[in-house]
Structure formats: structure tokens, C-alpha cells
Amino acid sequence: MSCTQNLCWPEPVINVQSLSESGINSIPTRYIKPHDDRPNTTKFHDRHVNIPVIDYTNLFSHDAALRHQTLRTVSSACRDWGFFQVVNHGVDHRLMASIREVWRDFFNLPLEVKQEYANAPDTYVGYGSRLGVEENASLDWGDYFFLHYLPVTVREKSKWPAVPPSCRELIEEYARELVKICQRLLKVLSTNLGLEEDYLQNAFGGAKNIGACLRANFYPKCPQPDLTLGISPHSDPGGITILLADDNVTGLQVRNSGRWVNVNPIPNAFIVNIGDQIQVLSNAIYKSVEHRVVVNSLKERQSLAFFYNPKSDLAIEPAKQLVTKGRPAQYQPLTFDEYRLYIRRKGLCGKTQVESLKSNI
Ligand code: OGA
Ligand code: NI
Fold first, then answer.
1. Ligand 1 proximity of 210 Cβ (cutoff 6 Å)
2. Which of 106, 180, 211, 344 is least surrounded, with the fewest CB atoms within 10 Å of its CB?
3. Is the pTM here over 0.85, yes or no?
4. Level-2 CATH architecture, domain 15-356
5. For the CA of 292, the nearest atom of ligand 1
């Protein structure tokens, strides 16, 4: 087991997929959440409440009214929800189907093959089942594969799955497309915040220096889904997340005004959410919102989360233009590397890490 920066697993990692396939009727206590954190003991919004949806092509429309209306929808989604779905984003649906399929094939490989990619908490790159290194921590009902796409210097393609054979090539093709969408969204967010169009991209270190990673999630069937979670409540630490979720199994829930809302994925849409670094840069005008995943006894679920992040050694702090007498800087500067270390040690804990950045002034 590799162990650097004092970051190593405190106990052997349990693979959830093999636990699920072992035919158990009840889940081990380590997966049982405290009563108040369970899926059905928390408050829900009416099932007709949904996160906002935008049509990507409208962002480029020659019809100025339509374009402005779409910008306003994005703006209120970023302020009030931290989440929105994007349709007509231009990414080929066949590429989306292929990338889903290669990851499904990967998770269906025998455990011994997948374990050749077993990860360690110093970088998290590879196949794993937990976040955080606290002994006896509560565990979530899911496995994942994590990898870096950018910067190229940390890509380490040799650590990406070699099977199925098309996997590495498809990941690159897919990530290339999503980088373009994130670049465009950063412009939209900058404009909406009243900043120069390139403000956020520059604050991220420029298009050539950003970080990007991919987390393929796999949530096996669970015999007691009411007692556990696939991912505990958390906000995403980075810049922008683009999620490709299964169309036919729900699971993702977003917190809104103290209640949980189910995300009902529109077929072939992307689910976009704001991460903690944009909350900081926008001086908390935009919210990186807590979300969680519930699991299911009948169907397994798969999702692919693409994270677009700032250059990791650059100080991230509220944009000067958004700091005023009435609204002082809400956060102290911190690099993404420093920020991420907190999560790598502690695991996911709601929004405690972005809250802990709050200035004491
Ligand atoms: C994540 C995440 C949600 C999902 O990977 O950060 O929140 O639906 N995933 O899998
Ligand atoms: Ni997340």
C-alpha cells in the first residue's frame, strides 16, 4: 500500500460491488447512517420541483432577447440552486453512449482486474471505494474510478483502465468536449457576475493551466437503501462539475432551502453544478450546493462526473470587483491544492470545508 504525505488507508478498503454481489440481506453497520441523515428522514420538496434547465444553443442565439433570457436563467440557477441541466449542448449522443458503455464494461470486470488499479488517498487516482482516511469513518454505498485529464503533466494515462481497449481514447475524446463547454460556461458566469468575460478563466490560471479530472461512480444494488447513501452530502470542491447520470435510474438529490430535491435527468442532458472555488471567486454570490446520492435495491446506477478546476497552486480569492463595503470578502485566499488536502484527509463533510475558509473579519 503506497503511503505518502501521511495519507494512507487506515484499514482495508471494502469493495461495495462485491459486497452487494455476495447476496447479503442486511448491510454492514459501517454503511448505516445516523437516523437523521437517512434518505427518508429528511425533508423533501414537492416531487414536481425540479432544478432549472437551459438550452445551450440559446446562449449563442442571434435573438438577443432569447440570449438574455437564457443568461438570466443561468444566473438565477447559480444563485438559487447551484445546479442546472443543459440540453442541446452539442456533444454527440453516440459519444455519450460509448463513454457510458466503456465504464459499465469496466465496472463489470472481475474484481481482481479492477484491483490492479486500486487507489491510495495521496492522489486518489485509480479504483476505490472511499474518501477520507479517518479510522472507523462512516462509509458510502459506492465504488468509483478517479483520474486526471489535465494538466497533461499529471495525466498518467498508464493508470487509466486499459480494458475495455477503447477506454483511454474515449475518455480523451469526451473530456475534450467537456473542456469546451466549461470554458464557455466560465464566460457566461463571468458576464453574469458583471466581470470581464475572461475573468474566471484567468482566475483559474488560464485555459492552458487548468486542472480537469473525471470520477466514474458506480452504485451497486443495495439490500437496505433506506439506511445508507451512495454519496454523503457534500459540495464539489473544484470549479464546475458536469455530470452525466443514468437516464433511467434516479439517485442524485440537491439541497434547496433546507429540503432535498430529486434530480430527474433529461435524456442526454448534462447536469452542471457550481463548485466551492466559484463560490469563493464570486464572493458567495454563487453557491456550491450540497448534494447526495441515494441508492436502490432494484437497480444499480452509474454516473460520470467531470470536474473543471483552477490551476492547483494558484491562490483563489473573491474577485475584487465583488468585494464592497457592504459585502466584504467572505473568504481568505487558499490554493486548490491546500483546499483539496482537507477533503482527502477528512472525506466529504457537507459544506464544512468551504465554511471553514470564512474570513474572521
Ligand atoms: C460526485 C457526485 C453525483 C452522482 O461525484 O461528486 O456528486 O449522481 N456524484 O453520482
Ligand atoms: Ni458531487
1. no
2. 180
3. yes
4. Sandwich (2.60)
5. 7
